[in-house]
Backbone:
């Protein structure tokens, strides 16, 4: 730290060049901040702590095939299952076909499967009591300016009511928050009673869409999954049971290899960045050769000079990078909000920052190492004579 | 104050240039290039500019490292931008080619996509009898009632990943109504049997779809008997007999959509009016062109916005890289430039020559980036979730239009990266520059 002043002075020797390079670094890490969380979200699925003890049971053949209601009792009796309930896809739109609402009709205990849902107890009771009541996530409520007590119509793209009407009336009786552990976009969801749906639904059978179950211990996931699938083996409604994160990941993979695309973009960005900052560092050292020689003359070792130059390039990357990441952290929520939920940018989290810092230091060392070696090896006499 | 006004003026020039540049069509830019060429070749100051530029370019070899920053930096920007836009373009084209103005598709009202729709046999009979529908030589309406379901199949590149593949149950008329669909291997499925023809897009993406293979759908064994091409969205699908598919998925006599051939494209209004005025029918109708265009809209827009946003941020990085390089280049040549000015050269040739050098480097970068993307990504196959919740296979399309866009971006970056160093070079006081070592 003693030599920080020296490194800083070297960096500020040519202010314009340093600032321009920093701005390039800033642009690169702004992209890193925005894209890396997207890449992580798509490659590893949901890593939320809250979902590790949940399994999702769907039809083995395809998502459009339902499962019989009778299965619920059988699943519940499997050892290791704490709670199980079902849900159905509703495919609702609000007012305009463009306003898609992620809406599910669910069994009475479905919400209890998700402890990360924070719904005030009074609102929960109100929901239990109201046949056409619905509870919605905070983000969704904000998007359409819904308040408790609002009566809202949703149109289903799939299910008409028995009287042929495609518009289903609901009353918002609860708005829930998603606590920190959850990262499933639950606060975009609209839940309402399966009973209401089942009684009024004029299309299709009485099958349910999928089951979600909670385990008493995440360690039993494999055993329980096999036991559930064994219940319906060789029937016409064979099931596929997987952990929630595996289920989410398989969905993300169907959208496309987003991870690969984003990875390729970042590779292009950083390849360019290394070239650019490398060039700056080479220039900076080249024109300072005599000064470095003076440093060596007054007693700096070769290693000392090496460390000074490396410190300079790492500092250059760190300043630009941290500002870029900070900017990304500010911009990301704005993009999500501004696009009306069309583009979901996950917030820039701690692990993201950590990865970015590692990348900054590594690139700083990579681009600094050649000029630094040159500084370390230079012979004082030659350098002072500008040979 | 003067300095501030000068900076403001430069900024205004840059902004004005960017606006004009993005709006200019290619003939105008060609004209601009011709005018510039004529000026360089035929006027006195033009020839001076040319000679100054030549001196600058001849020293390029000594500055290979720093000049490559401009080339590679801009190649990176253009590459990423063109690749993203090519992805959007490919997706959109695939869906757009699927539809035409001569056919119309009927879905249950409010369904938006075939997957959500259901039409009863009575509805279908009514729809087929409406005016505007073309008939074949025997007097049967040219209409195809189709059924779309989804199956889970393992992907070819990673068998542990299962994805949704669309299966379309069709009747005999489908082959007439979708003339793009042509069998390239094997044969058509036989009505009443559990046989499937697979689109080659689906065949490339999913494992076990080779001819002769059996696959399990809804608990029954089906045989693949043929493969077809269509160069549109149908290529991602598996086709089977509507009756067999309906019985396997317990759909009875209901179907999901009816595609009809119109007597002529202008008959659509008549057909639509007949459907909407029938109180027993609650259906949506659109030409297949509209229907498929609408499906591509949202995703294409997202890809474009993301591509351009990433491109702009990268371009900003590249501009600063170019500025650095050119400021350094101007600084090393400061004495030489000052000497020229002392000899009586005006500022303009100096400014133009530095700009020309930067823009030539930028052009090289743009061409390099566009070329690499064209070589790697033109025809690259990808797939995503389409409107029917199943995999839609499409190919990246690196069109000449996109390549041109990329090169325009490269030149815009080169312009900004060159302008400021060029002006600095021209404004440097001759005496100071000459004294500088």
Residues:
């Amino acid at each position: 730290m003693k030599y920080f002043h020296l490194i800083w002075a070297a960096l500020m020797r040519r202010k314009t060049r340093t600032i321009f390079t920093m701005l390039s670094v800033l642009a690169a890490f702004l992209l890193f901040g925005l894209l890396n969380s997207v890449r992580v979200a798509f490659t590893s699925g949901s890593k939320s702590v809250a979902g590790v003890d949940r399994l999702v049971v769907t039809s083995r053949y395809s998502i459009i095939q339902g499962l019989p209601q009778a299965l619920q009792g059988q699943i519940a009796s499997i050892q290791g299952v704490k709670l199980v309930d079902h849900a159905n896809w509703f495919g609702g739109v609000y007012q305009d076909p463009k306003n898609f609402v992620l809406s599910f009709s669910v069994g009475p205990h479905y919400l209890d499967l998700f402890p990360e849902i924070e719904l005030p107890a009074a609102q929960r009771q109100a929901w239990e009591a109201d046949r056409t009541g619905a509870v919605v996530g905070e983000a969704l409520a904000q998007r359409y300016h819904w308040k408790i007590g609002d009566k809202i119509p949703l149109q289903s793209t799939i299910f008409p009511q028995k009287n042929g009407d495609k518009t289903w009336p609901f009353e918002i009786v609860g708005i829930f928050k998603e606590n920190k552990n959850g990262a499933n976009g639950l606060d975009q969801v609209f839940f309402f009673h399966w009973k209401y749906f089942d009684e009024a639904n004029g299309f299709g059978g009485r099958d349910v869409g999928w089951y979600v179950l909670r385990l008493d211990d995440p360690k039993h996931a494999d055993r329980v999954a096999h036991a559930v699938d064994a219940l319906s083996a060789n029937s016409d409604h064979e099931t596929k049971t997987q952990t929630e994160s595996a289920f989410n990941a398989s969905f993300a993979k169907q959208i496309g290899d987003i991870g690969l695309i984003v990875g390729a973009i970042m590779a292009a960005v950083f390849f360019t960045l290394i070239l650019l900052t490398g060039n700056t560092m080479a220039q900076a050292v080249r024109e300072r050769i005599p000064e470095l020689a003076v440093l060596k003359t007054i007693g700096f070792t070769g290693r000392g000079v090496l460390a000074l130059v490396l410190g300079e390039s790492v500092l250059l990357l760190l300043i630009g990078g941290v500002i870029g990441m900070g900017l990304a952290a500010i911009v990301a929520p704005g993009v999500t909000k501004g696009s009306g939920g069309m583009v979901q940018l996950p917030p820039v989290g701690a692990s993201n920052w950590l990865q970015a810092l590692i990348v900054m230091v590594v690139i700083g060392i990579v681009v600094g190492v050649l000029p630094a070696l040159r500084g370390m090896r230079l012979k004082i006499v030659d350098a002072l004579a500008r040979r | 104050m003067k300095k501030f006004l000068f900076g403001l003026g430069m900024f205004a020039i840059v902004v004005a240039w960017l606006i004009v540049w993005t709006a200019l069509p290619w003939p105008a830019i060609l004209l601009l290039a011709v005018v510039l060429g004529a000026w360089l070749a035929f006027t006195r100051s033009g020839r001076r500019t040319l000679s100054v530029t030549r001196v600058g370019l001849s020293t390029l070899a000594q500055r290979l490292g720093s000049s490559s920053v401009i080339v590679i930096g801009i190649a990176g920007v253009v590459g990423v931008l063109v690749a993203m836009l090519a992805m959007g373009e490919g997706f959109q084209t695939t869906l757009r080619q699927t539809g035409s103005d001569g056919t119309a598709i009927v879905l249950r009202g409010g369904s938006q996509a075939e997957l959500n729709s259901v039409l009863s046999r009575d509805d279908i009979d009514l729809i087929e009898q409406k005016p505007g529908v073309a008939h074949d030589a025997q007097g049967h309406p040219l209409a195809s009632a189709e059924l779309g379901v989804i199956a889970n199949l393992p992907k070819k590149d990673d068998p542990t990943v299962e994805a949704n593949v669309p299966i379309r149950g069709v009747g005999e008329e489908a082959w007439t109504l979708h003339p793009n669909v042509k069998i390239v291997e094997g044969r058509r499925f036989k009505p009443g049997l559990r046989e499937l023809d697979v689109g080659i897009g689906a065949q490339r993406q999913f494992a076990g779809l080779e001819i002769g293979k059996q696959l399990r759908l809804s608990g029954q064994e089906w045989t693949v008997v043929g493969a077809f091409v269509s160069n549109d969205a149908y290529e991602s699908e598996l086709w089977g007999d509507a009756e067999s598919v309906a019985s396997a998925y317990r759909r009875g006599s209901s179907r999901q959509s009816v595609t009809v051939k119109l007597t002529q494209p202008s008959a659509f209004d008549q057909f639509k009016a007949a459907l909407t005025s029938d109180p027993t029918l609650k259906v949506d109708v659109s030409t297949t062109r509209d229907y498929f265009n609408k499906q591509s809209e949202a995703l294409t827009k997202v890809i474009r916005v993301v591509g351009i946003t990433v491109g702009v941020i990268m371009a900003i990085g590249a501009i600063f890289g170019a500025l650095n390089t050119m400021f350094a280049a101007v600084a090393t040549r400061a004495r030489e430039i000052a000497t020229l000015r002392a000899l009586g050269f005006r500022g303009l040739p100096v400014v133009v020559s530095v700009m020309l050098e930067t823009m030539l480097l930028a052009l090289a970068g743009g061409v390099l980036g566009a070329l690499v993307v064209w070589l790697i990504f033109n025809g690259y196959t990808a797939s995503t979730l389409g409107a029917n919740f199943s995999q839609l296979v499409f190919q990246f399309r690196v069109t000449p239009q996109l390549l041109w866009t990329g090169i325009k971006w490269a030149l815009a970056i080169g312009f900004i990266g060159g302008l400021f160093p060029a002006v600095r070079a021209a404004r440097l006081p001759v005496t100071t520059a000459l004294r500088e070592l």
Observations:
- Chain B has two domains: 12-96+296-435, 110-281.
- Chain B has 14 helices and twelve strands.
- Chain B has a mean pLDDT of 89.
- Chain B touches chain A through 56 residues (CB under 8 Å).
